[in-house]
Amino acid sequence: MEFNFYAILLSLSIINLLALIIIGRKQNISVYLMLYIVITINLIGQYTISKSDFLETALVGHRLVYVGAIFTSSLWLLGVAKLCKIKIPKPFIVGLLAYSSFVLYLACNVGTQTLYYTSIALEKHNNYSILVKENGSLHILYPILLIGNVLAIIGMLIYCHIRKENVSKITSILLLVLNVITMTLYFVQKAIDFPYEIYNVAYILVEWIILVLNGRIGMYDISDSIAASIDKNSNYGYIILDKKLRHMSSNLIARKFLPEINNIKIDSALSKDKTPILYAEFARWASEHDKDSKSTIDTDTRHLNCSIKKISNGHLIELIDITHQHKYMKLLNSYNSKLEKEVTAKTERIELLQDKLILGMSDMIESRDSNTGGHVKRTSLAIRIFLEELRKHKDKYKFDEQFFRNVIKAAPMHDLGKIGVDDRILRKPGKFTPEEFEEMKTHSSKGAKIVRQLLEDVEDDDFCEIAINLTHYHHEKWNGQGYPRGLKGPLIPIEARIMALADVFDALVSKRCYKEKMNFDEAFNIIEESLGSHFDPDLGKVFLECRPQLESFYIQMEEEEK
Is the pLDDT of residue 368 over 70? Predict the structure, then answer.
C-alpha cells in the first residue's frame, strides 16, 4: 500500500472532527468546531495536490489549502482569546477578516494576476505531485498574517499566565509551547528542502490539545456550569412560535408547566379553545404594541413568569416556575398587613428571588453547609425588612427604589466567598484557631472576586458595584478595625454597612454548632452598644426601629422549622 503523508494527516483530522462533535461540550465547541473544519479543508487541499496529475486539479487543492491555512490561524487566535477571557474589539476582527480575505483572493486567483505568484507549475517527486511557485511582490502578506497571528496568540498566553488569575496556568503554558512548536515548524519548512509540508503536523497537535482540554475548558467557564445546572434543575420552559403563532417546538418542561401545549400539534396555530392561556398572553402582548414583555401566569398548581420576545422568524416564550418564590413572598407579606400595603403602594412589582445566578450560587453554599445556607436566606429577608424601614428616611439618605432593589438582589451573594474556604474550617464544630480565623476572613475578598467575574458581562453598573461592595466590605467596622481593608466610617460603602447589621444580628439570634442563640433583648443590646464602633450609628438606629418586624419574622421562621 502506497504511503501518503497527507492521507494520514487528513484521516486523523477527520477522526478528530468526529470526536469533537461526539464528546464536545455544546457550550464550548462553536469556535473550535469551525477551526477543526478549516483544518480538514486545508488537509483535503494538500491531499488533492499530492494526487493531482493536472495543474487545474492541483489549483483546486491549492485554493482549499489557502482557505484552510488562512482561516485556521485566525480562528485559532479567536479560540485562544476566548479561553483567555480576552475580548477582542470588533474593529480588529473585521480588519483581520478583511486582510485574510484579501490574501485569500490573491492566492485563489493565480494565473489571472502575478502579484501573488509570478508563476506556478505542477511537478512530480517520488509519486507525489507538488506545486512549484515563484513568489510575487504581495506574497509577503501571507507570512505576515501567519506570523502576526502566532505572535498575537503567544502574547495573549504570556499575558494570561502573568496577569490573569482566572485562567489556568497549566493550559496557558501548554498552548504557549504548542504555538512555539508551530512557528518553529513553519520556519524549518521554509529553511530546508523537505518534500512534505511538515508544519501541517502542528494542526493535528492543535486538534489533539483541544480534545484533551475540552473538558477542562468547560470547568473553567462558570457560565457553562450554571447553564448546565439550570438545564438539570428543569426550571425553564421554552416555546417557539412562528410569525403566524404556529407551534414550531417546545421543550418537555414547557409542556409540563402548561399542559395545554399538548393540545396542538407542530405547525398548528394557537387557539382560544385549545390553548386559552397562551392565546390570552399573546392578546395582551399584542395590545402592548409587540414589545418584549414579562408577565405572570397563574394556573391551578403553578405560578409562572412568562416572557415573550421577538426572534428572527417568530417568537420565543420563556416560562420560569416561581411557585416556591411566590409562596415564600406571600408568607413574608403576611407578617404585617400595614407593611404589605406600603410595599404594594410603593413598588409595582417586587423582584422575586428568581435570578438564576444568585439562586444557583446560594444553593451551592447551602449544599456545603446547612447553617450557612439558612443564614443566607434569613439575612436576605431581614434585609428586606430593614430596607422597608429605611424607605421612611428617604429624605436623609437620598436612596432611590433602584438602590433598594439592587441591595435586595445582592444580599444573597454576601457570603459567596465561603465556597473557597476549606471544608475543614467551614464545617469545624467549634471555635476557630487564630490561623483558621485568618483563613476564614479571606472569604470576603474571595467572594468579591467571584462576584466580579460572574457579573462581568452584566450591563447594570450600579447593581454590579453594589453587589461587589456588599460582598467585599460587609465585615468592615465603623472604627476601622474590621477586614479585609480596615476601612473606617463613611469610607465603607453604605450597602456594606447595611449588610453588616443584618449579618451580625442573624449570627447573634441563630444557633450555631459552637454557640447557643441569644434572646432578642441580648442581641439588640449588643447592636445598640456597638453603634459607633462596629456599626454606622445612624443606620444602626434605623435598624433598631425594625425590632418588632424582625422579632415577628424570626419567631415565624422558628415555628416553621419545628
Answer: no
